[in-house]
Design a protein that fits this description.
The protein has five helices and eleven strands. It is of the alpha+beta class. It folds into two domains: about 55 residues, PDZ domain (Pdz3 Domain, Roll); about 100 residues, PDZ domain (Pdz3 Domain). A hairpin with a 2-residue loop joins β10 and β11. The longest helix has 10 residues. The protein is rod-shaped. The termini are far apart.
């Protein structure tokens, strides 16, 4: 059974995969794994060789071109660096809110005891920006209703609109102190 396939090797070019079982090499049956290295070593470079493999419950044939082992062969290309995914956010009133995750707590130096929804973005020229709200502030309540996660925010804002209010009172915590901010509701 193939455990791994070297990058740029004849096996990789022939699309041999880890998990394939080699049944025969160049017409010679493979009974034991130690037979294969000897057969490969006896194959002249550039010779076309047929492999019979077992994959997904059936026999398949693949062809590859034998190559001399290059001890200075290039290393495989590094995998693309994983870009950190921006946190999923909920937007309302020019604020983008996210769930308090360990990463965001660390990023904004928030205590483990902080509860609510963290502001990760404040739209320029929004009422929140005018009131001095910034990324890292934690929204803990809208009016008298607690905000436990970002999804709580839009319905509370919508409820205030529905009741004909012109502003919504938002309680925000920053560095251990809380304050109330009145944000105008967009009339639409």
């Amino acid at each position: 059974m193939i455990a791994a396939v070297d990058w740029g090797s004849p096996a990789e070019k022939a699309k041999v995969q880890p998990g394939d079982v080699i049944l025969s090499y160049d017409g010679k049956p493979i009974e034991r794994s130690r037979q294969l290295p000897r057969l490969v070593a006896d194959t002249p470079p550039d010779k076309q060789v047929k492999l019979t493999i077992w994959r997904d419950g059936k026999e398949q044939e693949v062809e590859l071109k034998a190559a001399a082992l290059n001890p200075n062969r290039p290393a495989p290309p590094p995998p693309d660096p994983e870009k950190p995914k921006p946190p999923a956010g909920v937007e309302a009133l020019g604020l983008k809110l996210a769930k308090l995750t360990p990463d965001l707590r660390k990023q904004f130096s928030l205590s483990d005891g902080a509860k609510g929804a963290v502001i990760i973005e404040v739209a320029q020229n929004s009422a929140g920006a005018a009131q001095g709200l910034r990324a890292g502030d934690v929204v803990v309540a809208v009016g008298r209703s607690a905000v436990a996660n970002p999804e709580d925010f839009p319905p509370l804002v919508a409820g205030a609109k529905k009741h004909g209010r012109k502003n919504v009172l938002v309680r925000v915590e920053r560095e251990g102190s809380s304050r109330f901010v009145a944000l105008p509701l967009e009339t639409s």
